[in-house]
Write a structure and sequence with these properties.
By secondary structure, the chain is of the alpha+beta class. It contains 4 helices and 9 strands; from the N terminus they run αβαβββββββααβ. It has 2 domains: about 1-35; about 35-240. It has helices at about 5-35, 45-60, 200-210, 215-230; strands spanning about 40-45, 65-80, 80-100, 105-125, 130-150, 155-160, 160-175, 180-195, 230-240. It starts with a helix and ends with a strand.
């Protein structure tokens, strides 16, 4: 075998090796990118909460209603990193009506809260288990309304004091991708809330044009807001991946 033939064989082997290597890299890249990149889920916890409240009101003498919903979208950047956005709403209201000597009086009281959250996630164990965090913005308000109707006329008044808050905290979760694109997700975490904006008394003063101070009312209302916006949380969501 002369030197020219040897060089030709060697160059041919190098070219084939490069082609095979590029093909394997392409296959690996295709396998790496072959995963669902979008997930849309519904959190069943606030939904069941609303259904439970409605069931309680239905079986009691108190007139009222409840509603809850939680929606989440996750964009999967790669098999280990995901970014999720979430919105949830919870609301409950009660209504009482009484007779006056020349008419009727109706009082409505409700509590409503909504949250927007950003949730970065880091997946392990084949994309089933993840650790992450929550950064969110929320608002909780009291919906109060009173109405009096008498023979001489009617009058109504309404007031909605509220508090906004920033919510942060750690979270861990488990996700299971089932058949046909169906997805289940469980998340456990703990939230800390930091309130901001006008206090309860400041809002009352603005409503009635007064200028009184009562720290106990502010502390009580803030404690109520923190009770519903912070602490342990559990999410059980179902949805679809694509």
């Amino acid at each position: 075998m002369n030197i020219l033939n040897y060089c030709g064989i060697r160059n041919g082997l190098v070219k084939k090796t490069i082609i095979i290597g590029l093909a394997l890299c392409g296959m690996a890249s295709a396998m790496h990118n072959d995963y669902p990149k979008n997930r849309i889920l519904v959190d069943l916890c606030p939904v069941l909460y609303g259904m439970l409240l409605n069931a309680i009101f239905t079986t009691s003498d108190v007139e009222g209603s409840g509603f809850g919903i939680g929606l989440q979208y996750e964009r999967v950047l790669n098999p280990q990193i995901g970014l999720a956005g979430r919105f949830d709403y919870l609301g409950v209201s009660t209504k009482a009506k009484g007779d006056l000597y020349d008419g009727t009086a109706t009082v409505q009281l409700g509590v409503s809260t909504f949250n927007f959250e950003f949730q970065p996630r880091y997946y392990q164990f084949g994309g089933r288990f993840y650790i992450g965090g929550v950064l969110g913005l929320g608002n909780l308000g009291l919906d109060m309304k009173g109405e009096v109707n008498t023979d001489s006329g009617g009058e109504s008044v309404s007031f909605r004091p509220s508090r906004s808050y920033i919510r942060i905290g750690p979270a861990v979760g488990w996700r299971n991708d089932l058949w046909g694109g169906f997805t289940l997700e469980n998340t456990f975490g703990y939230n800390y809330s930091f309130l901001f904006g006008k206090t309860f008394v400041e809002q009352v003063n603005k409503k009635i044009g007064a200028n009184f101070e009562d720290k106990s009312l502010d502390n009580t209302f803030d404690m109520f807001v923190r009770l519903l916006s912070s602490g342990y949380r559990w999410t059980f969501a179902v949805g679809w991946r694509f």
